[in-house]
């Protein structure tokens, strides 16, 4: 009977060299790896947010990854949703593709968070302050800055329009100027924990990439993601097949109605032409 430690070693031994090499190459700019790093990890989320917002006293009390918000016609999964000690919410999104950081997508994220933050009958003043933070691989706003903080102002004046929503872009292609935000960008793109600046992030990345239990966690996490992706693809195909069957059935019924209205064929002949049973054709005829 193997001990828990022996089971871990046995699992670790069976991980292929290819998988281990792939894990070594992961960075925090891979949103799945970022999710795993920050999953229920308030320390790492706090370290990231303190740098981005330049608030060294910010305290994160809760962090969730892959949080789903259901809308009327569309739902979204938030990469990371954190809450600080003052009830302020922070949505962190890793966006490798430029189109994923569309400003209207940020607007949608804010709206979905708002809808799910206010209970029925609550005053609108109870809406929490919300930060949507897009960490992008490229400089999608094209102004050559490392960090963009988007503000709302009253037209013609510099008076802020305070609605409690904030939007920040982090440009991970920015040149390193030695600032704290550029150090964070370095860590987000860094493959080696030993070369990272921020200790909490470095410790978590080191565990997941080098410790036996951590490497197993990464393999299991990505394996589950792959399984879900396959299940989603299968469900999509099944849905299309079901829709095709429904359309084919409707087309047959439409043919039956057309032939009945023409009035030159018997119901038996119409059944043969349409591929439907005589009973079904008779039932459709009765509806006319």
Strand order of the largest sheet: 1-2-3-4-6-5
The portion of residues assigned to helices is 40-55%
For the termini, the CA-CA separation is: 73 Å
State the low-pLDDT regions, or none.
Answer: none
Secondary-structure element order, N to C: HHHHEEEHEEEHHHHH
Class by SSE composition: alpha/beta
Average pLDDT: 89
Count up the helices: 10
Strand percentage, roughly? 15-25%
> What's the alpha carbon Rg, rounded to whole Å?
27 Å
- Strand count, sense and closure of the main sheet? 6 strands, mixed
Question: Overall 3D geometry?
Answer: extended
Number of extended strands = 6
Structure write-up:
- The protein is α/β, with parallel strands linked by helices and 288 residues long.
- Helices cover 50% and strands 15% of the residues.
- It contains ten helices and six strands, in the order ααααβββαβββααααα.
- The protein has a six-stranded mixed beta sheet, sandwiched between helices.
- The longest helix has 51 residues, at 212-262.
- The model has no long low-confidence stretch (mean pLDDT 89).
Write a short abstract of this structure.
The protein is α/β, with parallel strands linked by helices and 288 residues long. The chain is 50% helix and 15% strand. It has helices spanning 4-14, 17-24, 31-38, 42-53, 103-115, 180-189, 199-210, 212-262, 267-274, 278-287, and strands at residues 60-69, 76-84, 89-95, 130-136, 147-150, 165-171.
């Amino acid at each position: 009977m193997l001990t828990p430690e022996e089971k871990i070693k046995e699992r670790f031994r069976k991980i292929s060299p290819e998988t281990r090499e792939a894990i070594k190459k992961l960075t925090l700019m891979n949103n799945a790896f970022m999710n795993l790093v920050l999953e229920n990890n308030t320390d790492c989320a706090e370290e990231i947010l303190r740098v981005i917002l330049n608030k060294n006293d910010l305290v994160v009390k809760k962090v969730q990854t892959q949080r789903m918000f259901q809308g009327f016609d569309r739902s979204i999964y938030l990469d990371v949703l954190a809450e600080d000690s003052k009830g302020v919410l922070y949505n962190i999104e890793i966006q490798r593709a430029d189109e994923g950081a569309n400003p209207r997508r940020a607007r949608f994220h804010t709206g979905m968070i708002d809808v799910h933050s206010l209970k029925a009958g609550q005053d609108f003043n109870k809406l929490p302050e919300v930060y949507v933070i897009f960490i992008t691989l490229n400089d999608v706003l094209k102004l050559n800055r490392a960090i963009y903080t988007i503000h709302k102002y009253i037209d013609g004046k510099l008076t802020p329009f305070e609605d409690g929503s904030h939007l920040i872009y982090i440009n991970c292609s920015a040149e390193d100027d030695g600032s704290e935000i550029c150090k964070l960008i370095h860590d987000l793109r860094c493959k080696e924990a030993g070369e990272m600046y921020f200790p909490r992030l470095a410790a978590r990345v080191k565990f997941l990439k080098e410790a036996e239990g951590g490497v197993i966690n990464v393999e299991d996490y990505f394996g589950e993601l792959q399984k879900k992706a396959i299940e989603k693809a299968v469900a999509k195909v099944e849905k299309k097949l079901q829709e095709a069957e429904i359309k084919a059935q409707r087309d047959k019924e439409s043919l039956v109605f057309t032939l009945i209205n023409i009035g030159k064929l018997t119901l038996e002949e119409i059944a043969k032409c349409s591929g439907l049973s005589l009973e079904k054709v008779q039932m459709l005829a009765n509806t006319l």
